[in-house]
Amino acid sequence: MSKTAHRDLSRRERQIMDILYQRGRASAQEVMENLPDSPGYSAVRAMLRVLEEKGHARNEEEGLRYIFLPTVPRERAKRSAVKHLLQTFFDGSATQAVAALLDASASELSREELDRLAELIDKARREGK
Fold first, then answer.
1. How far apart are CA 57 and CA 52, in angstroms?
2. In whole angstroms, how far apart are CA 97 and each of 37, 106, 111?
3. How far apart are CA 7 and CA 41, in angstroms?
4. Does residue 74 contact residue 34 with C-beta atoms inside 8 Å?
5. Which residue of 40, 46, 56, 80 is most buried, as measured by CB atoms within 10 A?
6. For the whole model, what pTM was predicted?
């Protein structure tokens, strides 16, 4: 999949991929039931076919129904999405993104979560030398 592949998804297609990643696998009926303001079954099936054509999903036969799965490992998709987020909203700056996240949720972070963030920063410093 190309670096820009995630950008060629419509809002609905991204919502479907979110469902597939959250569930790991899902039938068209399950996707439809989990979509906000879901279109009809036929429309969901058509979008799943488009996602297959674009290389984002694949299907397996399970009895009399098809089960859909993401083709890109979740970790790889996550890294791609984070890179896109950084480029789109933070001019590629991880520092700006982390600062925005901390500003938005600092009061909600536990002592353990703050300690974990400090450990990750220390590790990045050691590996960056």
1. 5
2. 31, 13, 21
3. 25
4. no
5. 56
6. 0.65
> pLDDT tens digits, residue range 39-92?
999 999 999 999 999 999 999 999 999 999 999 888 887 888 888 889 999 999
Per-residue model confidence (pLDDT) at position 36:
92
* 97 and 65 within one domain: no
DSSP, res 3: T
Domain span at 111: 93-129
Which residues share a beta bridge with 65? Answer: 62
DSSP state string for 54-98: TTSEEEEEETTEEEEEESS-HHHHHHHHHHHHHHHHHTT-HHHHH
Domain-located, residue 85: no
